Amino acid sequence: MKRFTLFFIAFTLLSALTYSQFNWQWKHPYPQGNTLRYVKIFSATEWVAVGYGNTFMRTTNGGANWFVTSDAAGIRANTQISLYTAWFFNVNTGLVAGSSGNIWRTSNGGLNWDSIGTSSTGTLYGIHFIDANTGFIGGTSGTVLKTTNAGVTFTSLSTGGTQSIYNIFALNNRIYCPLSSGGIVLTSYDGGTTWFNDSTGASFTMYDACFKDSLNGMVAGSSTIVRVTSNAGLSWNSLTTGLPSSTFYGVEYRSGAHYLVGNSFYIFRSTNDGVSWDSVSFNATQYYTSTHYAVDRNGSNMIIGGAFGLLNTSTNAGTNWTAHNYLGYSSTLNDIWCDNMNGKVIAVGSASPTPFLYSSNGGNTWIYDIGNGITNAVYGLKMINSNTGYASGSSGKMFKTTNGGANWDSVSFVGATSTLYCPDFIDANTGWASGSSGTVYKTTNGGLNWALQTTGITSTLYRIDMVDANTGYIIGSSGAVRKTTDGGTSWVAQVSNYSSTLYWIQMQNATSGYLVGIGGTLRRTTNGGTNWDTVMTPVSASQYSISFTSMNTGYVVGAAGYTFRTSNGGADWQIRNSGSSTINAVYAKGYDSAWIACSGAGIMKMYSTLVGGITWSNEVPSGYYLGQNYPNPFNPTTTIKFAIPKAGKVTLKVYDVVGREVEMLFNEVPFNAGTILYDFDGTNLASGVYFYSLFVDNSMIDTKKMILVK
Q1: Can you tell me the distance from the alpha carbon of 482 to that of 220, in angstroms, rounded to the nearest whole number?
Q2: Taking the mean position of all CA atoms in its chain, how far away is CA 706?
Q3: 554 with 514: CB under 8 angstroms?
Q4: How many domains does the chain have?
Q5: What CATH number is associated with residue 627?
Q6: Of the residues 616, 641, 670, which one is the last residue of a structural domain?
Q7: Would you call 409 helix, strand, or coil by DSSP?
Q8: Of the candidates 36, 32, 39, which has an alpha carbon nearest to the alpha carbon of residue 67?
Q9: Burial letters for 646-685: b for 16+ Cβ neighbours within 10 Å, e otherwise?
Q10: Model-level pTM greater than 0.85?
Q11: Structural domain contains residue 32
């Protein structure tokens, strides 16, 4: 990660809107923050991009407005699918593929996606078409797939290879596949019938290949490797590029020039087949920059994309650039708070450049130099009211604001050297902080002095929640739960029925509240911690944060981008794919209003009513069950109900009358036992008869028929 000039900066985003099929809206970075692995520019105003977290994004007006979805690989409960590659014929029609081994196709600009069934189960890394109908896809274990009908169906070619193919380039009957080790290009000269391992003379990973004509080509990879051929790949020659040490992930030939992109934070360009290179700088347009994975050029229009959703375009062949991703902070965010959904928002995290992000207008603009000069990571945030609050972090540091987060001052903390993960205050003067080595400190004078309390714990305490001046709880490693009824003078062990790390506790009052941690098990007490009952959540992924506005209404978030919310105390959960990866904190203002803070500097906002989607309930059946969709016939939406009696990996597919897979609704999602309602949208399908099948742990449970009438 490279950071440029540090100064007060607040990007105004009010003129640009993000349109999303999901209700989590990216607020930082903007318009989204997942790594982009494929970009395509059709004109000065029409572009598409594809990346991790099922991300697809499209603009038809030069970035003034965006369609952004985390549904490019089908509606998901989580974000575990990463899209590594795509091929778009125009701004509306194209294919995406990635970590699931499946392929998805859209013909309406990403509004709907058809699942393309294949025999592949590994990751697919590269797509290349030689004309409007014939194309190839490469992936793990030497996988090469071929289509002759524009990606409607694919067949597998036998390559005999075992290495991963990181990209693919096809030219008439010649297919070139850069491999994951040994500097090898797996090559076919007869359309995929026979294959050869052609050595480039390097011993490193090759990431990409391209040819400008039938004879002259270039491959690039790790350790600044660039090789060229002038005889269609029969032999490869080394180039002394003079380029800085880098891994090159993409090489393209466009408009008489070769372009290289990678982790050097520049684009490199050669107009003489790699004999010499110059750098095309776009750095001034981005506050931060990082690794770039993809570049494309169409006439004088250029686009480049990469980590953190970085996206830049040029309309004059790279002389000037415009940034379309506003990344002002690059580190993991650990906690978040808002005054109201359109007002002040504070997020805290690692110290790069400072541990504080601040918005005064609901995330439309951000200030990145709050707490300038503070080099400590901040893990916890507690606002007592809209003006006064505390934040705690590494090296026993505590910080205080009295103006709603616009400024932070250091608070004296004599004797504390351990990491402080969580502050909690009941008023401006009386507060506590918990941290590593089982430490809890207390102040009664607004942080001027602190007293160490005895907890009886030597492991890390991640969260403290004080209900009032006397009653409170601490949680941490190995399922540790302690309770105090005398302001922390003594802490009494509680039985949580939990042996793994606990990350978050939230009490609604002295007797009732929730806690959660590794393994995804939510616990609830209604008798002051004497008993903690299990509240099942849809998926047993680790959960890192909860936020309940009452004992009935709240959010649970955690690993793999899962977000669950309930309005009836966990009897039913609505599932939403956030579009991010790990979510470290959630702060809810109501059932339809919440903020989340994520790894990778992501901040997202939910501020609208959810409609449809996926709902899980803890109604456990006696056996596996797949219900008849309702209504049936339908146009264009219907609900599919199924239930599983024990935890399992669920797959739900839709087929047409000839048995061709047309939709992948779930792909081995690890649901807990319960009943699931899925709102299926058949907008992108033609009228007709379809079948949907439920699989659990790779075993078919049942198949039902449904009829779409338009």
Answers
A1: 57
A2: 33
A3: yes
A4: 2
A5: 2.60.40.1930
A6: 616
A7: strand
A8: 32
A9: ebbebbbbbbeeeeebbbbbbbebbbbebbbbbebbbebb
A10: yes
A11: no
Which tokens sit at 271? Answer: 């107009």
204: exposed, middle or buried (C-beta count within 10 Å: 0-12, 13-18, 19+)?
A: middle
Flag whether pLDDT at 422 surpasses 50: yes
Q: Are 55 and 70 in contact (CB under 8 A)?
A: yes
Question: Which amino acid is it at 544?
Answer: Y
**Together in a domain, 593 and 495:** yes
> What is the number of other CB atoms lying within 10 angstroms of the CB of residue 452?
12
- Examine the pLDDT at 270 and tell me if it is beyond 50: yes
Q: What is the pLDDT of residue 17?
A: 31
Q: How far apart are CA 456 and CA 435, in angstroms?
A: 13
- Report strand pairing: 398-401 vs 226-229: unpaired
**Domain membership flag for residue 312:** no
Whether residues 502 and 363 fall in one domain:
yes
* 505 and 556 assigned to the same domain: yes
Strand order in the sheet with 593-598: 24-28, 603-607, 593-598, 583-590
Residue 593 tokens read as: 């209003």
Alpha-carbon gap, residue 399 to 371, rounded angstroms: 9
Residue after which a domain boundary falls, among 616, 639, 674: 616
601 and 625 in a common domain = no
Same domain, 356 and 345: yes
Q: What is the pLDDT of residues 378-402, one digit of tens each?
A: 999 999 999 999 999 999 999 999 9
CB within 8 Å of 318: residues ≥ 6 apart:
267, 269, 280, 282, 302
Q: Which is it for the CA torsion 92, 97, 99, 102, positive or negative?
A: positive
CB 695 within 8 A of CB 650: yes
Distance CA 97, CA 72 (A): 9
Predicted local confidence at residue 561, as pLDDT: 85
Q: Within this chain, do residues 605 and 673 fall inside the same structural domain, yes or no?
A: no
Tokens 């690794």: give the residue: 291
Three-state DSSP at 283 gives: helix
Q: Are residues 547 and 664 in the same domain?
A: no
Domain around 687: 619-708
**pLDDT over threshold 90, residue 231:** yes
For strands 135-139 and 144-147, give the pairing. antiparallel
Distances (CA, A) of 304 to 1, 266, 310: 16, 10, 8
Nearest 5°: phi and psi at 438?
70, 20
In a shared domain, residues 559 and 633: no
